[in-house]
Structure formats: structure tokens, C-alpha cells
Amino acid sequence: LHLGDLLEVTIWLHTAQFEADAVDLSVGGLSLRAAQLPSVGSQLFCTFEAMPGGAQVLGRGEVVWSQPSGE
Predict the structure, then answer these.
(1) In the chain, at which residue ranges do the beta strands (DSSP E only) sit?
(2) How far is the C-alpha of 10 from the C-alpha of 56, rounded, in Å?
(3) Which of 28, 30, 60 is nearest to 20 (CA)?
(4) Mean pLDDT across the stretch 45-67?
(5) CA dist 55 → 6, 18, 33, 50, 62 (Å)
(6) Residues linked to residue 11 through DSSP beta bridges, in sequence order
(7) What is the Cα–Cα distance from 4 to 70, expressed in whole angstroms?
(8) 70 or 10: whose pLDDT is higher?
(9) Contact criterion met (CB below 8 Å) for 9 and 20
(10) pLDDT of residue 6
(11) Tens digit of pLDDT for each residue in 25-39?
């Protein structure tokens, strides 16, 4: 599912919390755009609304690739 309107996602990495925008969501994972880039292999938790006013979704994942913006 390519998200035309970016979906706001909250990320927890160890004890840090930061915001990100979901760009794409599929069976293979969630593609995010964020100012902070976690290291590949990092374990994290995230939460977002399934749709505006919808249920909160809590996910756990691992960073499998990371690319600075514009590269």
C-alpha cells in the first residue's frame, strides 16, 4: 500500500522516542522517512493509527536497511 498521504508513526528505539512518516506499508514491512536513522539491525517498536480515528497499531521490527535522504 503506497501511502499518498503520509502516515505519522511514533518509533521507540531503546529509550529514545522519535517521529517518522510511513511512506509504504506491505507484507514485507514498513518503509519510513525520519530525521533520525537507526542502525541496520536495530530492534524497535512503532505505533500508528490504522486510519484517521481508527485503532492504534503497535508493531515490533528490525531495521533491515537505511539510506540518508537524497542518496
Answers:
(1) 2-13, 16-26, 29-33, 43-49, 56-62
(2) 11
(3) 30
(4) 86
(5) 17, 20, 22, 6, 23
(6) 18, 46
(7) 19
(8) 10
(9) yes
(10) 58
(11) 888 888 888 888 888
In angstroms, rounded to a whole number, what is the distance separating the alpha carbons of residues 22 and 10? 10
Rg of the chain over CA atoms, in angstroms? 12
Taking residues 2-12, report their average pLDDT. Answer: 67
Q: Residue 62 forms beta bridges with which residues?
A: 43
Q: How far apart are CA 46 and CA 68, in angstroms?
A: 20
For residue 29, count CB atoms less than 10 angstroms from its CB and return exposed for 0-12, middle for 13-18, buried for 19 or more.
Answer: middle
Q: Which three cell numbers stand for residue 39?
A: 542502525
CB-based contacts of 15: which residues, under 8 Å, 6+ apart? none
